[in-house]
Specification:
about 35% strand, alpha+beta, about 25% helix, three-stranded antiparallel sheet, 9 strands, six-stranded antiparallel sheet, OB fold (Dihydrolipoamide Acetyltransferase, E2P), about 130 residues
Length: about 130
């Protein structure tokens, strides 16, 4: 399974890429695979403030609707509006074009609570 080394991971299967105090957020390949073909994404509101662990977005697939939780807290400053017309990008490129949003003013403490790629891989193996 593809688990990029340069990202941070939550137990809810979201990933975070940090650039200064800005986090790019998406769902992991594992989550996308579990959901199946994604058909719709309800993106977060621009400029909304989210807390770590709060509902951030909703992803709907042929199997189910699933809440996406904020792996870090901050202010939503960018959303991936391409997902409105092409939600399947989350399935085909979860760590690239399938990103969901960018959150600014992220607290380092939130990031420190996330897992490394190695820890996430071990976490996935616990579920097997």
């Amino acid at each position: 399974m593809n688990i990029p080394e340069n990202l941070y991971y939550s137990k809810d299967h979201e990933w975070v890429s940090m650039d200064a105090d800005t986090a790019t957020v998406g769902i992991t390949a594992h989550a996308a695979e579990q959901l199946g073909d994604i058909t719709f994404v309800e993106l977060p509101e621009m400029d909304s403030t989210v807390g770590q662990g709060s509902e951030l977005a909703v992803v709907e697939s042929i199997k189910a609707a699933s809440d996406i939780f904020a792996p870090v807290g901050g202010v939503v400053k960018e959303i991936n509006s391409e997902l409105d017309d092409a939600p399947e990008k989350i399935n085909s490129d979860p760590y690239g074009e399938g990103w969901i949003c960018k959150i600014h003013d992220v607290d380092d403490d939130d990031v420190n609570e996330l897992m490394s790629a190695e820890e996430y891989a071990a976490f996935l193996n616990e579920d097997d």
